[in-house]
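Re-run with default settings, no changes from the original entry. Doing this only to confirm the output is reproducible before filing.
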Amino acid sequence: MISASRLALVAAAGFSLAACSHLPKPAMPFVRKGETSAPAPRIPEAPPVAGPKLAALKPGHWAQELSDLAPDPAWRFGVLPNGMRYAIRKNATPPGQASLRLWFGAGSMMEADDQQGLAHFLEHMAFNGSKNVPEGEMVKILERHGLAFGADTNAQTSFDETTYQLDLPKTDNDTVDATLMLLREAAGELTIAPDAVDRERGVVLSEERTRDTPGYRVAIQTLSAQMEGQLPPKRIPIGKTDILKTAPAQKIRDFYEAYYRPERAVLVAVGDFDVDAMEAKIKAKFGDWAGKGQPGKDPDVGPVMKRGETAKLIVQAGAPWSVQMTWLRKPDGLIETKALDERDTLENLAFAVLNRRLQAIGRSAEPPFIAGGAFKGDQYGAVRVTTFGATAQPGQWKQAISALDAEQRRAVQYGVRQDELDREIANMRAGLVAAVAGEATQRTPALANQLVGTLNDGEVVTSPSQNLAAFDQIVKGLTPERVSGVLKSAFAGSGPLIVVAAPENIEGGEPAILKAYDEVKAQPVTPPAAPGVTVWPYSSFGPTGEVVERKEVTDLDTVFVRFANGVKLTVKPTKFRDDQILVKVRTGHGLLDLPSDQQSPLWSGAALVEGGLKQISAQDMERVLTGKIIGASLGVEDDAFVLNGRTRPQDLETEMQVLAAYATEPGWRPEAFNRVKTSYGTLHDQLQTTTGGVLGRDLGGLMHVGDKRWTFPSREQIADTSLDQLKAAVAEPLGKGNLEIVIVGDTTVEKAIAAVADTFGALPARPGEPERPDARKAPFPEPSKTPVVLTHKGRADQGALFMTWRTDDLFANLQRSRDVSILGQVLQLRLIDELREKQGATYSPNASSTASVVFKNWGYLAVSLEVPPEKLDGAVESIRKIAADLREHPISADELERAKKPRIDSIEKARVTNEYWAGVLSGAQDDPRLLDATRSVLAGLSRVTPEDVQKAARTYLGDDKSWLLLVKPEAAATAAAK
């Protein structure tokens, strides 16, 4: 499976295929009636790829049965007599865990006009009662087996498929049997009771409100323009709110019985279990499943509309400026074969070249857009698209059209160069080689999702080794001329459709867009310029550093090292993921270094890496290091600035050189800073349109009582921030701060020491700087009976709340912090039960706890949720009643188990990842309490009792100790204030 058959164009607009939103019907695009200039010559379509059609794949059959590709032999494929397929694979990364997926070849496109939104509604009802599981019990059963609602138990509905996902923390018979039973209930035994449907309406409507953002609305209208007259834009998964509010339960059952049938279903099981035993369990549990009534039909998606140059203007307040140029033609509709893989691989290489060119334009001194990209692929079996897209600078849509058009015509006229092709082959091959190196430790959820991803597109699941062998065969003797020919044919078909999205109207509207296109398309383009010769200038940092101290932390399989220049290195070799190494370079004191009364400039921190290095630009660095698997990003933690890297064993030396170069000689190029600044300059318009945006913008500052280290910059502050301010905040900690390096993953202690000794260990000793006085004190809002009220400019039915109670830092009382953590889990269970299941008031209520390891006495319990504004007071009252009950009564043993087990299991799962250890080992050489906390966390959580939870509730969850924030629509808040 090396083809990319679903490189969704709508992803370029920030649209998730499985997301749900409802939007007004968009206006039709403007089609040119009379040409003002000669249209571009029509590019002939390439001869179709020969091969079996998707339509030939019958129920109960796998794509490999019609393909010349062999599937990954690690999978066992089967089909039951009733037509249900299954795919099973043993995998022990991580050990003792499993992932189950129940997939249906049915989504919103299968709905009738009066069922719009009910495929997704049905997904919700799968958790709300069945023949053998009463309403409200399914989630509790999963929790008792350690599955957290949301994290381990999830589902999604798209246009043409629905998937239920369960990630099992254990593979004992009891857990496996219980989860298979629940999936079997969802498959064919749901009750879909009318009263349960009525209770769930508010939850689905809450999800609709949550999803409805300006970017999402633009994506839907873009999809409507691309697929004018076709079915997908008329069947957005969330559906229509009037149907969601009123549809009878029978309408949901009609869809259920028509499309939740064994011949449309696939069960995927991956994990640390015996394959024969799992197959026997699947046969026993699903063998008696039979469809009810008449099976549903596959939809007619409609023909691709033929059209010439067309413009579509989408005006949406809060949306960023963007431009897309799209060419459309009939989809392939093919099952994956060697021939299709070859065509797709050549296309992927060509588009990688195009994206590299667009990236270079975006990085130029005066870029015509903020970021650009090229995309192609089939969409829902309805249309095949090729798109050039860009996020434009405010008001500069013409410049974006000009640049995109020039690059498209340059690609068609001149194709790709040999050096460009060689570079992308090397990069793509490096990724495939890395995948082969990690083949034995592929993670269980990823493998399950990989197979599910093949089911609707006629793809054959193949192994990394198979993919590499196929790629090498395809690119053997490959010429730029062949790739250029495939690239040119990607622009065949109707178009271009030019979509401009803007937060305000454009003078002249859609005719003005076509006029602008007329003015640029006749301008000549020159061949793409070949790059100059550049070498990697950061291979030496001085004499190799000397190790002066080495300490074994045997119980954690970790080694502490100190170099003569003061650099500290923490190494934890693991075999969690073959060929993966994580690196963290910590320097300075992070937020502790920043003044509390000056706006932090760290929002622009991405400019550090984008700005390249003093002796080489980011663009040239990527070219020089072609074929290397490395990464670099700047982050800030409470007590350190962090350079993060991700690499593989053979590139560890280069990774350390890159990070050391950023620490000592960053480029500080103004064009990179200006690009980030321009992007941030439009954020306020976007954030103010949703409750989530307003919370994301203001909550950090409010939770720290205006401390400028946590506040989001105002428009004026963004406009006034300079590159020098970012340098002033970051350069000294990077260049002079004490250095601590954490390396976790597929390496040895000796190799890690050698890589650091030649880079950071070779640097001159650093003096370091002390923390600011009182830097470890962070303010927290005082309890108040009067809520803080913020407003948004979005929909009038969107509201949100955030309620918090102050607790303490982690080390004030380590066991008490574990008690509070479980209290937070219990609070989450109560919120779901009361506000989601019983009241149907909200889609995703959330409770969380935080205990700082840096700031003294700083920690909190918090609740956040979305509800309509008129239900905010009721939600607050419900939360206070839950808190009062937790104070007054001890929780039951069952509730404690359902709170503790998912939390403990989630930590156990995390402890077999490199990411977990890179985090918990950070700072441990200076603060050994962190190691003690890591050692004791599971035992500490396990010993929490109902009495401990009640004591924590009595200590912290008083009504007089809470702080409340409400987010309301601007109009409603204004009216209430009068």
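The chain has 31 helices and 24 strands. Residues 2-28, 32-39 have pLDDT under 50 and may be disordered.
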